[in-house]
Specification:
- It is a single chain.
- The protein is mainly α.
- The chain folds into 2 domains: about 55 residues, no CATH class; about 130 residues, no CATH class.
- Helices cover about 65% and strands about 10% of the residues.
- Helix 4 packs parallel to helix 6 and helix 5 packs antiparallel against helix 6.
């Protein structure tokens, strides 16, 4: 099975797993079901291909209650991390405990959580090194931290986006090569 086909199947599986039992509203569940059916029709996907198991259903991974993000490092990285890990992400409302939520297949959501935490720790360590080296005055300290965080998280996000583009290009070129070989050697 090609990487592109597996990606389509994973998207349909994730949509089908968006149920009211998994925390979606009825409207969200119905919208997800409609989109999944449209994708199944467009890509001629059979039920046998989908073969959903309990481990393959989309899950939500939430940050633990009380998680802090004082410099908005996680918030600046979450879009690129979720795209890189093939997940959806959003910020929970304050009345629900606030924090970032990833939705995707278990391995994807778990990796997204780990990657976001690891990159956040990296940026925090680099902030300390930057402040020790640059030694901004107390008046300039807040702006220096904000500027450093923005520059660092923008660069990381850009690199993750480029890796996604390279992966998509490789998958497309591999699929095209496979299709050409099938045309040449039926």
């Amino acid at each position: 099975m090609t990487i592109e086909r597996e990606s389509v199947l994973n998207k349909i599986r994730a949509l089908l797993a968006k149920t009211m039992e998994n925390g979606c509203s009825e409207a969200e569940a119905m919208a997800a079901l409609g989109k999944a059916q449209a994708m199944k029709d467009a890509y001629a996907v059979t039920e046998a291909e989908l073969n959903l198991t309990k481990e393959e259903k989309a899950i939500l991974r939430r940050e633990p209650p009380g998680t802090k993000d004082p410099h908005r490092i996680k918030w600046n990285l979450v879009w690129a991390v979720s795209k890189f890990c093939n997940c959806e992400s959003w910020r929970q409302r304050r009345d629900e405990g606030s924090g970032i939520v990833f939705c995707g297949l278990p391995a994807d959501a778990q990796f997204a959580t780990w990657l976001l935490d690891t990159l956040t720790n990296f940026v925090q360590v680099e902030i300390v090194d930057f402040l020790m080296e640059a030694a901004p005055s107390n008046e300039d300290r807040r702006e220096a931290i904000r500027s450093f965080v923005m520059g660092c998280t923008d660069r990381i996000s850009d690199r993750l986006s480029k890796l996604c583009e390279q992966s998509a290009t490789l998958a497309t070129s591999n699929a095209n090569s496979h299709q050409l070989s099938l045309l040449r050697n039926p």
